[in-house]
Structures are given as C-alpha cells and as structure tokens.
Amino acid sequence: MPSLVEASGPGLTSEPPSSSSDTTSGAPMSQASYGPSSSDMQYYYQHLYPFKQIFQWLNHSPKPGRDIINREFAMAFRSGAYKRYNSFNSVQEFKAQIQKGNPDRFEIGAVYNKPPRERDSILKTEMKPIEKELVFDIDMDDYDSYRTCCSGAQVCQKCWKFITLAMKVINVSLEEDFGFEEFIWVFSGRRGAHCWISDKRARVMIDTYRKNMLDYVNVVRDRNIEKRLNLVRPLHPHLSRSLEILKPHFVEIIMREQDTWRDDELAMQSLATSCHDKQLTEQLKKLWTERPGRSSEEKWKDMDVLASQIIMNLPKQRQNDYLQRLRENKEDIIIQTLYPKLDVEVTKQTIHLLKAPFCIHPATGNVCVPITEAFSPEMAPKLITLQNEMESNGNQVEKTSLQPYLELFSKYVQTILKQEITSQKREREEDSKQSIDF
Region Disordered: start and end of each range (predicted)? Predict the structure, then answer.
C-alpha cells in the first residue's frame, strides 16, 4: 500500500543572513539570553524606533486624524506597572510621551469614539470602540507536543518551520477566502508571530464578525496530542487547500526532524489511537511494544503495512472504504500537527491590545521586526547589536541591520496610505452620485 505522504516531499528553508553563518542550522537558540536596561531602551526610543512610520500606519494618513487621536496605547514598565488609555494628537507627542515614559514595551489597542485619555472625565459607557486591525497570534508553545528539537524558551530553524507553515496557510486564506490585501507579519521577539490586517473591511469588523472569522480559520482547537481530530468529510475547500500546502512538509518536519513519535508511549497514546479501526490500533500497540524505539517514519509505514493485512481479510465491498478511512485518518494527523494554532483571545475582541511592531522583547533583546516566510528567529536584530552598529557607523540608522525591516514596513505603510486615499475617493464619488440621484 503506498504511503499517503511521499518521503521525498520538498522542505521549507529559511536561510539566515551571512552575518549569522556561524549559527548551526537546527541548533537550539536560547531566546532569554539578554534583557535591555532602562538606558538601553532610552537609547532605542531616541535613535532607532520608527515613530513616524508607526504613526502613519495606525492613522492611515500622514496628517493626524481620528484614527490616531482616538487610538488607545498601553505602556508596560519594568516595575510591573501597566498604564492603559494613553492617546496622542501628533507624531511629536507620540514620540515625546514614549521617550518620557520609557516603557519596556507599548501596546496598540482600538480606535474609540473619543480620545482614550479623556476616559476619566466622561462616563465609561460613553467610550465605545469603533475599529482596530484584525490580528492573529501564533506562539510556539502550542506546538510543544510535536517539537523535540527545543523546549521552553528555546527555538531553532527546525521548529520555526511550524510558524512559517502557519503563516503560509493563513496568508493564502486571507487573500483567497476573504480578499484581504493589506496585512503584515511581525516577529513576537521570542518564538511567535503576529499578523496585523489593516484593510478597512477588517478594521471595522464588529466582535461577532471577528469571532466568526476566527471560527472559520481556527480548526485545531484542542492542543492535546492524544485528542483525535476526526474532521468531517468532504473537507471544506479551505481545509483541502491547507492540506495540500502542509502535506509536502509533513515527512521532513514531523517524521524526520522532530521524530515526534519515536517515543513509544506517546506513539501508542496518540498515533495508534488516531486510527478509525480498533483492531489496527491494538496491532500497532502490540508491534511497538515488541519492537520499541522505531522511528516516527517507520511507525507511519507500520500503519500501512498492518492495514494491508487487515484489508486482505475483509469482504471486497469493504476494502475500499477501509482504505479511504485510513487515508482520512492520516490527513487528519497532518492537519492536527502542522495547521496553524491560534491564540483565540487576541483575535476575538476589538479592544484587545497587542504589542506594537519594533518593540524590544524585554527578555531577549530582539527587535519585533516585520517578517516574511523566509524569516528565522536568529535573523532578528538585537538591540545590543544595533547599538554597536550605530557607534561604529556614526549613528546612521540606514547602515544598521534594522534597515531592511524598516524598508519592508515603510513599503507596507505607503501601500496602506495609497489604498486609503483610493477608498476615500471612491466613497466621495458614491456619496456624490447618491446626492445627484436624489
């Protein structure tokens, strides 16, 4: 019986820049080795943070308007204090207040009907969220059941492939299923990624619509590796497409690099029990007990071999059905292991705050830079590296390792600004046409 997934499937690659060539591919990298000091953060906010680009991105215009004046910002301090409902009238005020507060990080919230800083002077019931970017959050924690290369705060090129595949699946869905165009991924600074969707249709979604979209995208809701997924057939077109994206990488990532089921007990509790047939499950458990230590790839093939023996003893009219069920079981396993695993709370509510792009992760010193599918965590600029680069090049930001990410974000912002102008022009034309018709 041919295996569902060919072992020769192409793999994901993410090449680090030449400056990182001394990093061994696949070697775990601790993401908790350096935390910036208060003076480090002051330096960063004074010389490196792209306040203008962030301001224009959130305002959807170079000139201050409602989208920025009524936007909530929250600041988190190293003392443990957390200050919400900050808002700013200009990019100058935005920069000055962040530099004055010198937070470890700051977060972006919703646009309200009134400036959030006026919250204490009005009735709380009068403050209502109007819009915010639709966001998705993916964290390596949710893949811990499947990754063996790293644990805890560690991450490497091997396990980062989980995040890369998640980005790929979500990107295709955003474009093809929802028609969104203006979205960008941002490295969380340690072992995850955030997707910010800035299309107008996404920003004005009410919470009910956000939850509906989340329900559509969030397929693997139970993180328990022993929990059988058991998807309904025929698969939804989104799932069928996602399966085709994930399938070529399953053998390389799960079977070979992670070797998730080499642990016999785990294999018997999850892989064997994923089968639709109790007889096959028991035979697999028996085989793996008698022949311990078989690789995940061998165990995957064992499913086909033992299933073939069972099929030979079935009536002919049941053989095709049995084979189809086994194929579906294997498809479910591929989706369960590799499909995006989302932090649902981040997406559900308009008022939810999320760390701003280009913040510094307080534990790692990594800059939370915008990324593409070619990114790997060791590529992220560290604040200490940027400080050394600035010292050696005469404080020229454009000559630091941060510059490529600044250019990527600036290009994204300019696209949004152009799209916003086009959208506003279209709205004025429609309003004018309605007035004439009346």
Answer: 1-34
72 a catalytic residue: yes
Active-site pick, 67, 104, 139, 297: 139
Of 2, 137, 33, 8, which Cα lies nearest the Cα of 380?
A: 33
Is residue 296 exposed (0-12), middle (13-18) or buried (19+ Cβ within 10 Å)? buried
What value, to the nearest 5°, has the Cα angle with vertex 221 and ends 217 and 222?
A: 160
Tokens (6 digits) for 246: 């994930």
Known catalytic residue at 137: yes
CATH classification for the domain delimited by 38-138+180-219+342-430, as one of 2.30.40.10, 3.40.930.10, 1.20.58.1560, 3.90.920.10: 3.90.920.10
Lookup result for tokens 């085989």? 287
- Report how far apart, in Å, the C-alpha atoms of 252 and of each of 157, 180, 249, 307, 431 are: 13, 31, 6, 23, 55
The domain locations on the chain are 38-138+180-219+342-430, 237-338
pLDDT for 249-289, tens place per residue?
A: 999 999 999 999 999 999 999 999 999 999 999 999 999 99
pTM for the model stands at: 0.89
Q: Is 437 labeled as catalytic in the residue annotation?
A: no
* Pair of tokens at residue 121: 């002077």
Indicate which residue of 104, 131, 133, 137 is catalytic.
137
